[in-house]
């Protein structure tokens, strides 16, 4: 038998490469077996092109893939000598194609836990894959269908994510609403109804809207009546007991089944989207437990919201559904595009703001956000919002509880109080971040962190005991916000709307400013107390080991402050309408100040102060209100709060938590302005031993294994020889371990003295030596290099923009050192006078 | 080769995986990723089916039940007017009839005042789906119940029925080098050779437990994350 096949056989082979597993061997080594060629000859004629081919033997042992077609391989003839002076020449072209076609070993090309992915490598892998599918799609109908379905799979995935995220959000909304009401009583018409749905049919009176015969408070159920001190104490007791039960259940489930389900999740998702691997963080158990415990945590009355965790839940959905599609399962960079879109879907259902969700993903969460992802996010957000809308969790055909709708005009002078609210929001944001980070650091470093269950228990007990007496803290935070946003009409019966009414002068909805009644004054000091309580309890709540979001509590703080200011302004205008500032626009009997608008602006300001969002925040707020009139007030407040908060502390809450935990996140927002060079940052340092390298064709398996065992680096540069130090490529530790392990088991004749070579064809060896191990397929032939004189500004920019994991440093073409992402992060931390060792996961 | 050198991490076995591939070629075709063994594979098949069922459950009731009479209402809130106190009217009418003239019955004011009275009233049409609410609450409660039962099982019953050595093995494993172990687990997801479905589930459960324990150490003990 000859090693060379005829041209025809080659052609046939090329078209059947889908069935062929490639293991490249030099043409001189072994002739193909008779059986194999016979099998190949029976293939039908194809129409592919093939020039200089050589058929090579497949080395797969038969025992592993029993009963399957024997696999074999072809490769182009090695280029003539001299052409491959730099080892294979170009990185693209046929050789890469062939390398790609080699079915990789399981595990090669994957990453270990707590490692950073290489965006460049992942993206080029996806491009190769895509090119391959496109070129193959011309060959047969099946391949064409495959290529179409591959192109379509991204959108299909978005559809599924939207459906799942929307359904889960509906589940969370409905059950959280029900369980919140369960703290106060139960519905006799059907235990699954919450208070509002329980009283759906019954005729309620104007003054006591909440009361209906079907809904029984606990005291009514146990004592038979709801009046008196004892009934109050019983209700109080039941409220605290339920709150404690819910939160305990939440923290126990988190601790027992999925510890990663705690917290808000947005800092971690930001880190993951920037390329970090946290195995299990977006897994199925995390999804289940986060969904379940989020409901429990929200209904326990703790000062937390569901918005941040919903983003995490949506990202879990995205990650799990990625497993259904090969394209996304195998490529970490592609998967992160999906996760960006899933985050948008999460915000979309959390606030009922699809566009706000997309912008949130763009502004706050995502790291790499190409236009394609923008459109996909848009679609996912749309589907999610539609799904939630069709579930209709609140019965008001809206996606959020605190949807508001008013169209009162505002006066230019009102910008002054809006800016004041912005300043308040910024101050509060900065104060909150400082104190919350201080508290979290205490939790991280002292004994406090050893008792997560006890901590949750104590905080819930304090919250519940303090919350019950004040009706504005007793109700759920979403309801509170809804009430504060609401503009008092003549129909409202809440205390906040108890103005002195003059019914004879009213005409329809157009209510003038009125004097505040006693109810409003009571509500004011109750709200003031609620504000103080929320401000402090939120600091201790955020970061506990239950799912906890930050949006709702910060919005509540801002809304309370805004409402207080709004009512104050209103009364000021009512009693002093003759003042010069009010004279132009707020004469007597006019409706000029809307306290609900102040609450809304305050909420935006506080949220902006904490998260430092601007565009997405304003869009979310105006999608909530459904009115475009208030964009300018909202923008003014958001901008002011960002300025004020940035002046005090430069990072938002999520960035602060990222830094507290030391995640390797390369912030894209900050400029690098120091005059250091690449050689100052690279490893090895001047005093260190030289860089550990692997030579391309002279090291044995044993040598490489020694290097692997003695060092902990996650990758090694491959050079032509130790003397010349000319760079060939980069090989990852994990790939190397897996390949050697696999070769030792599956490949005949691989022993410790076998030579490993990374070249295209094997180096000449004496005939007695053991067979060699070719590992070119795992070699990254296009590692990124900079020279040692490159300024760090440029290096940091390269790392940010390309999402590199490591970058090799050369001098006069000789390999000098390596800079990893963590080196860059440490360098930045060092220059900012922080502890460089705070970057964990080394 | 130095004598004391630790051998490279070796997969515990690959036969289990192979067995799964041969026994369940369909699954292997659908999910060729080799790091997935049978239990995970079926879990994925099952979970995708479950997902579709859940979606159907959640999405279909509104379509079927929206016309159900007790799920719609038109609620009119009328404020106090002259000497009439405020009232709330609640009626079961279609969306186009949802206005003050149709819902407020009997009209408390004489004919010429009706228009003025009705201007003050605010009518809102609302729909809900009782089936959705019921299904969701029941699903939620049963999931919580199942989780609690499973937790009780893991805490109370499991240590009793499990042999001591099998129980201490994961603890022993953790003493090893972290790096080597994570690689080993990546390479050998299948664990010891599993013959019956029960054993496979057992293996999957053990692996899951180890993962959770690892997560717990990261979050609660070392405070590396999420603090």
Automatic annotation (TrEMBL), chain A:
The keyword tRNA-binding does not apply. Pfam families: CBS, Voltage_CLC. The keyword Transmembrane helix applies. Proton-coupled chloride transporter. Functions as antiport system and exchanges chloride ions against protons. Important for normal acidification of the endosome lumen. May play an important role in renal tubular function. The CLC channel family contains both chloride channels and proton-coupled anion transporters that exchange chloride or another anion for protons. The absence of conserved gating glutamate residues is typical for family members that function as channels. It is found in: Cell membrane; Endosome membrane; Golgi apparatus membrane; Membrane. It catalyses: 2 chloride(in) + H(+)(out) = 2 chloride(out) + H(+)(in). It comes from Mycteria americana. CDD domains: CBS_pair_voltage-gated_CLC_euk_bac, ClC_3_like. The chain crosses the membrane at residues 152-172, 236-261, 282-304, 310-326, 338-362, 412-431, 451-468, 523-544, 550-569. Belongs to the chloride channel (TC 2.A.49) family. ClC-5/CLCN5 subfamily. Interacts with NEDD4 and NEDD4L. Keywords: Antiport, ATP-binding, CBS domain, Cell membrane, Chloride, Endosome, Golgi apparatus, Ion transport, Membrane, Nucleotide-binding, Repeat, Transmembrane, Transmembrane helix, Transport, Ubl conjugation. GO terms for molecular function: antiporter activity; ATP binding; voltage-gated chloride channel activity. PANTHER family: CHLORIDE CHANNEL PROTEIN (PTHR45711), H(+)_CL(-) EXCHANGE TRANSPORTER 5 (PTHR45711:SF7). GO terms for cellular component: early endosome; endosome membrane; Golgi membrane; plasma membrane; synaptic vesicle. It is a multi-pass membrane protein. Residues 682-746, 772-838 form the CBS domain. Coiled coil: none annotated. It comes from the Eukaryota. This is Chloride channel protein.
TrEMBL record, chain B:
GO terms for cellular component: lysosomal membrane. It comes from the Eukaryota. The chain crosses the membrane at residues 135-157. Keywords: Membrane, Transmembrane, Transmembrane helix. Residues 211-227 have a biased composition (Basic and acidic residues). InterPro entries: TMEM9/TMEM9B. Its main location: membrane. The keyword ATP-binding does not apply. Residues 172-191, 208-227 are annotated as: Disordered. It is found in: Membrane. Belongs to the TMEM9 family. This is Transmembrane protein 9.
